[in-house]
Amino acid sequence: MLAVNGFFGYVIVLQMRGILSREPSIPAGLAESVLATSTLWIYLGVACSVAFAAAGAYVLLTEVMRPLKALVAAAREAALGHPVQALAVRGGDEIGELTRHFNELTQSLTVAAGFRGERETMKKELDVAHAVQALLLPKELPNFPGFVLNVMYRPAREASGDYYDFIKVDDKRFGVAVADVSGKGMGSAMIATVTRSYWRALAVGQRSPADVLRRVNRALHDDIKDDMFVTMLYAIFNVEDHQVKVASAGHDPMLICHRNKVIESIKPEGPPLGVDDGGLFDEAVFDLDLMINQGDMIALYTDGVTEAMNSKEECFGYDRLKEVVRANVEKPAVRVLQGIGEELEKFTAGHVQSDDITIVTVKLEQQGG
Amino acid sequence: MGELSVGTRNQGDITIVDIEGSVDTVTSGKLSGLFDKLLADKAVKIVVNLSKAKYINSAGWGIFLGNLKRVKMASGNIVLAQMSEEVRHIYTLLGFKSFLKQYPTEAEAIATYSGG
């Protein structure tokens, strides 16, 4: 611009010189002073143009170039995942608007990254909870003469409070417990491990499952939060005379499928563990006595099985469970669990599993013929 | 999973809590907030009308149980009324009758507070 101005200024001066020098009527002195004045004005004009040009360049720089440069730099940082400060909104309408939108965008990204960070931390915590739970479950199925034990344990994605356990009560008896802590998450998983520890310590040598539940209740009651509770089904099997004693603390019924395909639902009444200090609990739980025969299949489970849902929000239900057990009772013991697993998968058809699924089957093998 | 609305009515010094909808992990906060308020206001003679309650999950039952202790310490109680089939099924299965009493009608539930 300067060059253009300078060029035109020079041309004008030259032209004027030329014109003036060719006009004989204009005295030389006058011509010179006119030329000098004109030249001065032209130089002034050029200087003003330069000044305006400089001013214009400055405006361009501050209103447009610098904010744009800042936007570009910030966008680069954001793309790399680095935290970005909000930019000062300067500049004309479009640039100002662009800056405002950019600030909103980076703010949203920061909030989203915060959530992602929280989720990742939580996921790590739950992975730890799952690992701890897995460690505390029985590492292998125990061997009790004449009985076949099988287990299906499918925890839900979020750590929950299901667990199962076995114990040698004494030389003639073994115990099987299945439990479900209310709620989900780390808190429930931790109460599950606490309950298991109390139970393992208190069940040894105790022949009455109801008594064990009373002791576990008393121990748990202080540890557990007011709004949480634990359901448990505890059955003690006698390997010699095939008697079974069962007690329940608010848990789902125990299924017995006899060899002749008759199914019984065993549900001794009793409230859940951890709510009451024993004043009401102790009176309410009791032992139920049964006999089982060779070929009988018993299933202890948690409500994750019966309440497993499909995409139509229907529950798998108790009847379906009974049918699968009945259909497989004469087959090798492990077939019952496989059958339940297959039916569950078919029914839920990939619908997300929302609750832990725990099933323990106990089959009294048929001896000889 | 569902919507929940909770409301209260008074009959003398007895507060009747109306529950409409589902109490699940998402909505249970509303219910526990209501109980906090009732306890703060010393409204501890509580009848819970469940005629419009479709579903109560373990968190919901936990709220009743957890607040039961607090109201009992303040010489109050929580009594349930008009449970639906589905809700009664869980109530029975879990054996809550040892802790929480229930009645088929609201009137019977309210009557438990009179006569000392």
Short description:
The complex is a heterodimer of chains A (369) and B (116). With 369 residues, chain A is an alpha+beta fold.
Secondary structure layout:
The complex is a heterodimer of chains A (369) and B (116).
Chain A (H helix, E strand, L loop, with lengths): L1 H21 L5 H52 L13 H44 L10 E8 L5 E9 L4 E12 L1 H18 L5 H15 L6 E9 L4 E7 L4 E4 L5 E4 L14 H4 L3 E4 L5 E5 L1 H4 L10 H12 L5 H15 L8 E8 L5
Antiparallel strand pairs in A: 1-10, 2-3, 3-4, 4-5, 5-8, 6-7, 6-9, 9-10
Chain B lengths: L3 E8 L2 E10 L4 H13 L4 E12 L1 H16 L3 E5 L3 H9 L7 E3 L2 H6 L5
Helix pairs in contact in B: 1-2
Molecular structure report:
The complex is a heterodimer of chains A (369) and B (116). With 369 residues, chain A is an alpha+beta fold. Chain A is built from nine helices and ten strands. In chain A, the strands form two sheets. Chain A has a five-stranded antiparallel beta sheet with strand order 1-10-9-6-7. A five-stranded antiparallel beta sheet of chain A has the order 2-3-4-5-8. The longest helix of chain A has 52 residues, at 28-79. Chain A is rod-shaped. Chain B has 116 residues and is α/β, with parallel strands linked by helices. Chain B has four helices and five strands. In chain B, helix 3 (85-93) links the parallel strand 4 and strand 5 (101-103). Chain B starts with a strand and ends in a 5-residue tail after the last helix. The mean pLDDT of chain B is 93.
